[in-house]
């Protein structure tokens, strides 16, 4: 596994359990969402990029067939990976620092799936919009955000980028319970 530190972060210790594999649910990927995504990916996709990858659990359905790239805030030394790491590259880097500090020449987004799972709720409306605009401008044609929807009422920030960008995504529910749960926002094979 290759580790790269773009920025060192301090964050609330509440998040530490996301970087372990001590809890059963932290060893299982977001199914059936990621099963659906894998079944509907075009053949030209060779890399899965997960912003907010935590312990890598959502790489599990992709780990044997794709290159995996994870972005998150934890030091690589504390992460207890739930996925295989032989084809994993990890960047200690936030969404904001990805936009402002990352060397983008190293990744061709046209052959990547971009995925988030409860990550954009920590990113402002302006930076959600900026992030999506950046991805589209750089030919990313496969994006899946599993986030709290714009009509969500609760303590988390909603996925609520500019309405023109939001309208590009197909909205699908993958969990049995719908109210108060993340929703799949899909932009696949565009």
Protein architecture, described:
There is one protein chain. Strand 5 (112-117), helix 3 and strand 6 form a beta-alpha-beta unit. The chain is globular. An eight-stranded mixed beta sheet has the order 1-4-3-2-5-6-8-7, with no helix packed on it. It has one domain: 3-Layer(aba) Sandwich (Rossmann fold), CATH 3.40.50.150. It starts with a strand and ends with a strand. It contains four helices and eight strands, in the order E-H-E-E-E-H-E-H-E-H-E-E. The model has no long low-confidence stretch (mean pLDDT 95). With 190 residues, it is α/β, with parallel strands linked by helices.
Describe, in short, the structure shown.
The protein is an alpha/beta fold. Helices cover 16% and strands 21% of the residues.
The CATH class, by name, is: Alpha Beta
Annotation field: number of helices: 4
The fold-level CATH name is: Rossmann fold
Report the major sheet.
8 strands, mixed
How many beta strands in the DSSP annotation?
8
